[in-house]
Amino acid sequence: MNNAYLYALTGIVLFTLGLYALIIYSHLLRKILAINIMASGVFLQLVALSTRARPLLDAVPHAMVITGIVVAVSATALALALMLRLRDASGSAELIEESTE
Amino acid sequence: MLIVLPLIGTLLCFLLPRQVKALGLMTALAIAASAVALLWQLLQQGAMRYSVGGWGAPLGIDLYADGLSLLMLLITATVGLAISIYANAAFKLDKLVHFWPLWLLLWTALNALFLSADLFNLYVSLELLGLSAVALVALAGGSAALGAAMRYLLVSLLGSMLYLLGLALLYHSFASVDIAILAQRMESTPAVWAAMALMTVGLLLKTALFPLHFWLPPAHANAPAAVSALLSALVVKGSFYILLRLWLEVFPLSHAAPGQLLGLLGAAAILWGGVQALRQTRLKMLIAYSTVSQLGYLFIAFPLATTMAWKGAMYLLLSHALAKSAMFLAAGNLLLFGGHDRITQLDRVAQRLPLTLAAFALAGVSIIGLPISGGFIGKWLLLTAAMQSGEWGWAVVMILGSLLAAAYIFKVIGYAFTQAEVTHEACEVSKTMGATAFVLALAAIVLGLIAPWLLALMDIAEPFAMSSAALNAGAAA
Considering only CB atoms, which chain B residues are within 8 Å of A100? Predict the structure, then answer.
């Protein structure tokens, strides 16, 4: 097993861990962190797998990861802002199951 | 042009909050005009490809426009323009200051999405679309809307992550994310199947296909009316459009099993959404569940996979965009008028808000799929496609879905004519708001009358040709 696969597998593990946490925990901060961990997993995957696509280092996935990180940062900022607003409005930072009424 | 224009509008609206009303409307008009200009160009030259900055396909960013993207751009411009006018009349200035920049940003994302020629660009515009849509839902304020927005955001991010992971696998296998290049190099390996599954599930989450629809009704029902109309009419269609592109061009459809699965989910969505819509007591929830049901129809095209079926689904998509935005705007008027949207207490609105109710009824005609409306043409094409390939099951589900739609729409209209037990003070609703809803609903009907012309537009560059060819090859082999 070479290094690239090790990184790629780590990426998958991170992604799965994040997905698990996203579903299991009810506190919103944990959910937001879980999504960030998932994103790190995907980015690791992108970079690790790109070394195998061509023999030389490929710059395109790096550009993608940079773009992805920018997107993830802004998404996290929006999520955190929403969470704070929600806590102010409803008194708890958790999602409540809404009744159909 | 179509992407830069709304972006400039966004910045200007941020910088000059006082003039936001006029500025926004001017930008909306300019975008609509450039969409029409693109229509003109495409009619003369056929499909277009444009490299941003002159870098070219493998490395740079390419924009691509064919019949499919053109129709999506046009429908976005039509619905967008109407909603812009409505919003200017409905929101107060302090809300408008936030509404306009976000809405123009959303418009930027939609136009970029419909013009992108590579999968990564699609990811970026999809993310932009999701974020601005979430912010628009949160605009309503209050804990219900904020909770719905939060749930929407989490679902949307999860969907994008799945999509990006699939994209990583595809890049690993083929060293490109350009749709045209991928289509040439495509082969059936386990990595491709994994990528296809990941991307499809991610996009289905965002398109809210049953059983991944749970986030849609609260998000769409709790947003302000103009925003709900945008979400139902355009935003969910964005991710559906990517799904369509992927399945039509990137992944050859010669394997029938995944298509059948999507079709089954679509059929379940039609029935479940219809039944849930019937059970709702609030008008906006009813309309939101109706969206879930109508989205199901679009997926019936996947198992059929003939050119006629794709065209039917596209037609249904366009007419649903018009009819559903009209319905949500009408519901917004009723909400403002009576201060609530409980269906059983719609107190004689037929006499008191005739224009709004006419809009609702006309939109309903298209949603049910009664003749001469746009919805009828779409359903007719889908039904014919189902019967031609001898798959009666899909046809039965579609007809049942129409009956359910008729039931829930007549339920609302019935209550609108009768006097409620509790009478209430009515608030004034401006003429513009009724009129825009009515114009949109009328457009949904007119869509049925200009069918031959629109169907010809879809043939520019023949976006559907490839899947039928692949299917024929599969059948021959």
Answer: 279-280, 285
Q: What is the pTM of this model?
A: 0.90
Q: Which residues of chain B have pLDDT under 70?
A: 1-2, 53-60, 252-256, 420-426, 461-477
Residue A15: list chain B partners with CB under 8 A. 161, 165
List chain A residues with CB under 8 Å of B124. 67, 71
> Are B385 and B242 in the same domain?
no
Identify the pLDDT of residue B424.
62
CA closest to B175 among chain A residues = A53
Per-residue pLDDT of B100-159, as tens digits, reads 999 999 999 999 999 888 888 899 999 999 999 999 999 888 888 898 999 999 999 999
| Domain identity same for B261 and B406 | yes
- All structural domains of chain A, each given as residue ranges with its CATH number in brackets, are 3-90 (1.10.287.3510)
User: What is the residue type of B467?
Assistant: S
Q: Are B181 and B58 in contact (CB under 8 A)?
A: yes
Q: What is the DSSP letter of B2?
A: T
Please report the number of interchain residue pairs, chain A to chain B, with beta-carbon separation below 8 angstroms.
96
What's the pLDDT tens digit per position in B216-246?
988 888 888 899 999 999 999 999 999 988 8
Pick B165's closest partner by Cβ from A45, A60, A95. Answer: A45
- Flag if A35 and B154 touch (Cβ within 8 Å): yes
Contacts of A35 in chain B (CB under 8 A): 154, 157-158, 161
Distance CA B100, CA B98 (A): 6
> Helices B431-449 & B354-368, crossing angle to 10 degrees?
30
- B218/A82 Cβ within 8 A: no
The tokens describing B374, both together, are 């746009």
Asked if residue B120 and residue B88 are part of one domain, the reply reads yes
CB B113 within 8 A of CB B129: yes
- Assess whether B278 and B196 both reside in one domain: no
Nearest CA-CA partner of B149 in B219, B220, B221: B219
B324: in domain: yes
